[in-house]
Amino acid sequence: RAKADGRATFRFFEPALDEQIRRDQALRSGLRTALEREELDLHFQPLVGISQPGVTCLEALLRWRHPLRGMVPPSEFIPAAEESGLITRIGAWALRTACHEAARWPWPIPVAVNLSPMQFRNPGLVQMVANALAESGLAPERLELEITESALLQDDQASLSILRELGGLGVRLALDDFGTGFSSLGYLLRFPFHKIKIDRSFVAGLPEGRESKAVIRAVVSMGRSLGIAVTAEGVETAEQLAVLRLLGCDDAQGYLFSCPLPAASLASLIGRLHRPDSAGAA
Ligand code: C2E
Ligand code: MG
Ligand code: MG
Ligand code: MG
Predict the structure, then answer these.
(1) pLDDT, tens only, 56-97
(2) Chain Cα centroid distance, residue 28
(3) pLDDT, tens only, 133-161
(4) What are the two backbone dihedrals, phi and then psi, of residue 104, each rounded to the nearest 5 degrees?
(5) What is the pLDDT of residues 234-243, one digit of tens each?
(6) How many other CB atoms are there within 10 angstroms of residue 205's CB atom?
(7) Which of 46, 79, 190, 228 is the Cys-Cys partner for 223 at CB 3.0 to 4.6 Å?
(8) Which residues have CB under 6 Å of ligand 1?
């Protein structure tokens, strides 16, 4: 009986699996031409100061307008880009474009660019960053690179030396999605980060969540003593922002302030968030 059930289950899933593989293949071949066809775009989401109002950074987030499927989220195509190796070209494009955009902004706000684990391991990374800065003329201290814990796990010493080389260019380094991996805070703080971004899963536990609060409090206190800024990701409500302010977080990012926006919408966003009566100052 068990065997028959198993076979029935297998047969039930088979077409779905097939369909999934077909979708993945279609996605990958579409991704190969996405750059040339100018289907990729960067949107920007603000990081907002908690104790002092205003936009402290703009994070660049990739968007793919697929001709048939519409907007494909990065959670779907970044993994596909990593597996196929296309992330090297797409990542270089994102970095170059973000630097060029930021260099043209009328505000001296830094831009943050995400690096996937494979990009972080790429031996050409430091040169690519140096080139993007040189070609755009963007001041290095206005570029922030976001790296997740999963990129650091593989080799301690190699990670440390890449981060030091990047730091040596004068760019700022942020640890992204903090708390989603299994590393201890103590381990992560041996790396030369300027900023820690607490993953939105912790913020989602606020305003009540005792564990979330304990984690955030610990990160803030470590950050304070080491001179590392702390950002809370995924802030959606005024109640969450109030708790984060009490806990001493430096910056907040989330739909409460703005979702990621196309470059053309940034001027009105900056205007809105710099007003003293804005959500950022609430
Ligand atoms: P991330 O770097 O942690 O970016 C934050 C993600 O959270 C973004 O999703 C953003 O739209 C979303 N978000 C912001 N505020 C809120 C909120 O209040 N609530 C909720 N529920 N979500 C919020 P997005 O744009 O879909 O990007 C997902 C991930 O894809 C990013 O996570 C990043 O790891 C990766 N990614 C995006 N752009 C790039 C890129 O240019 N290069 C690389 N390597 N990865 C990228
Ligand atoms: Mg990020
Ligand atoms: Mg993040
Ligand atoms: Mg995240």
Answers:
(1) 999 999 999 998 889 999 999 999 999 989 999 999 999 999
(2) 22
(3) 999 999 999 999 999 998 987 778 999 99
(4) -95, -10
(5) 999 999 999 9
(6) 17
(7) 228
(8) 45, 60-62, 73-75, 78, 91, 94, 114-116, 119, 146, 176-177, 200, 234-236, 253-255, 260
